[in-house]
Amino acid sequence: MSEIKVVSFEIAGEEYALDIMKIDSIIEVKKILKVPQAPSFVKGIMDFRGMVIPVISGKKKFALSNEEEESDKAIVVNLKDKKMAILVDEVKEVLSFSQDELEEPPQEITNESNRYISAIANVNGRMIIVLDIDKLLSEKEEKAISNLNKENDVTEGR
Q1: What does the alpha-carbon distance between residue 112 and residue 18 come to, in Å, rounded to a whole number?
Q2: What is the Cα–Cα distance from 52 to 145, expressed in whole angstroms?
Q3: pLDDT per residue as tens digits for the range 92-126
Q4: What is the pLDDT of residues 55-94, one digit of tens each?
Q5: Other Cβ atoms within 10 Å of 116 Cβ, number
Q6: CB 3.0 to 4.6 Å from 116: which of 3, 27, 53, 135, for a disulfide?
């Protein structure tokens, strides 16, 4: 039986999880440089081990809150061939789920804007939304973030 190991985290009181193999680091964000013309869910850019990476607001990306107050905790993820930081309220724990514990999201809630929901884990009375990080950004959003880097003459150490 195949298992998936995930890191669970909280954003605006809701619990989410990401495949541990897609996570680079869990960090405390020191300074975020705001970038003009950025998509609304992009908080800015930051230095991560000598690379400049985008920082996105989990609250705004998942449309959970409009409040400006953000945590200084972030999960740095490997998104295709790039890295990106996602601001979260709290990193909770590492969990293992068997395929039996994962359910597909109901069709009634799936659409283009939340295509990144890969499964729902319903374990011990906890419902955890498992995210597919590779589907987090639409093509248009990926392009906008890439263009931010070009416009601001920012590279990833290449």
Answers
A1: 19
A2: 12
A3: 999 999 988 898 887 776 666 678 889 999 888 88
A4: 999 999 888 876 666 788 999 999 888 899 999 999 999 9
A5: 17
A6: 135
**AA identity, residue 157:** G
**How many C-beta atoms lie closer than 10 Å to residue 83's C-beta?**
18
For 68, the token pair is 């400006």
The one-letter code for the residue type at 40 is S
Closest CA to 87 of 102, 79, 97, 76: 76
User: Does residue 37 come out as left (phi exceeding 0), alpha (psi in the -120 to 50 range) or beta?
Assistant: left
Neighbour tally for 99: CB within 10 Å: 10
Q: How many helices (H) and strands (E) does the chain have?
A: 2, 11
Evaluate whether 50 touches 56 at the Cβ level (below 8 Å).
Answer: no
